[in-house]
Amino acid sequence: MATPTAPVSPPPPPRTPAAPVWPASTRDVPGGGGLAVGGVPLGEIADRFGTPVYVMDEDEVRSRARAWRAALPGADVAYAGKAFLSRAMIRWIEAEGLSLDVCSAGELELAAHSGFPAERIVLHGNAKSPDDVRAALRLGVGRIVIDGTGEIARLAALVPPGARQRVLLRVVPGVSAGAHAAVRTGVEGQKFGVPVAGGEAEEAVERLLGQPRLELAGLHCHLGSQIAGLGPYVTAVRRLVPLLARIRDRHGVTFPELDLGGGFAIAYREGDPAVDPGTYAERIGSELDLQCARFGLPRPRLTVEPGRWIAGPAGVALYRVLSVKTTAGRTFVAVDGGMSDNPRPALYGVRYTVRLAGRASAAPGRSVTVVGRHCEAGDVLAEDVELPGDLRPGDVLAVPAAGAYHLSMASAYNLVGRPPVAAVTGGRARLLVRRETLDDLRSREVGE
Ligand SMILES: Cc1ncc(COP(=O)(O)O)c(C=O)c1O
Ligand SMILES: N[C@@H](CCCC[NH3+])C(=O)O
């Protein structure tokens, strides 16, 4: 009788390596002083600028920007400003040689007034307002991404006679990817782009090619956000290159550019996978070569649009503990910020890790839930995290991976005012953006 063999399970898919959650400059302060980032003790930052406060590690931002440029020589790396934008951030991105993706006249004007070259700016938006488009044309942005067929004639009509605006067409390749349904933009049935399936994209290309004031330079797609694997990007290339070939066959046009968007995952908690730019470059680059060779197309210049990957891990949010309360067997540590400065837990169910930052503690840890100060039970930052048992009001807590989509999505909920941003580098901290004060909020009240 044959010996029964153990059932053979397929080999596990290759996992993206775990990524650091804290900026590379994070250290323990000697003598029990807690944590430091960029050479500055976080407790000192909390005392100097107040809490909540967002700390951006300038060197971390710059090295992350450089990582994408180094991984993709010759490609265009456009930082997606929606993740976090401030004058300093714009200057760092400019100095590192990146382009900038904006999606409103507000982001665009801030970039232009901060000296960012307009030709390196890409304007996005599924519903660009007349102000957005006018600002883009006045400032001379390099590319405008067309999101729908209805936009084509409207935009062309605003381009002054004799001028030509370079555009890309945002297409939907039918690829479902992203950490939450709300951020999956690569599939049909959501508001962005023009589907490849069913010929809609080809129809839009035809219309664009018929507009002498628009210069269609290529296709764009953005699959979604917080995408940890590369499979979706490979599939997108496999769908977009055949579309490029169909366009070439039908219209005799070969586009010089292909923009594959952003969406690269970062780690929010220890052990989370993240995208590695080098691996992306290798995998997507070789797929692009393969598909282009297959269809006899020259390889277009690639654009990528990382937002979160550059800004997220460079940011640390600091809060002060306001209360520690044990109720019905659970301990809640409430801090002086929450869903008004970080709506991500409430929007996408994301949970963060937290550390005591203002001092060291030898007290044994206990499991607590860190909550915000807002009027909702869902205002939770971190669930069942281990923090020292002697945690008390006044302690400073630090939340990592806080540089992207926190402040840029912050609100004035409960009229607490948005936190300031301080940059750290080389042992020094400086204020980039001041706190929104109650006077700021009251000054908007102009009627009775
Ligand atoms: C068009 C476009 N490009 C780039 C990004 C940046 O995404 P992420 O911050 O996930 O890299 C976004 C947002 O998801 C986007 O909508
Ligand atoms: N705001 C989302 C990502 C959406 C990206 C914008 N296209 C987040 O916090 O994860």
Automatic annotation (TrEMBL):
Residues 54-403 form the Orn/DAP/Arg decarboxylase 2 C-terminal domain. The keyword Amino-acid biosynthesis applies. Its EC number is 4.1.1.20. Substrate binds at residues 308, 344, 348, 376, 405. Its cofactor is pyridoxal 5'-phosphate. Pathway: Amino-acid biosynthesis; L-lysine biosynthesis via DAP pathway; L-lysine from DL-2,6-diaminopimelate: step 1/1. GO terms for biological process: lysine biosynthetic process via diaminopimelate. The active site is at 375 (proton donor). Residues 59-311 form the Orn/DAP/Arg decarboxylase 2 N-terminal domain. It catalyses: meso-2,6-diaminopimelate + H(+) = L-lysine + CO2. Pfam families: Orn_Arg_deC_N, Orn_DAP_Arg_deC. Homodimer. Specifically catalyzes the decarboxylation of meso-diaminopimelate (meso-DAP) to L-lysine. This is Diaminopimelate decarboxylase.
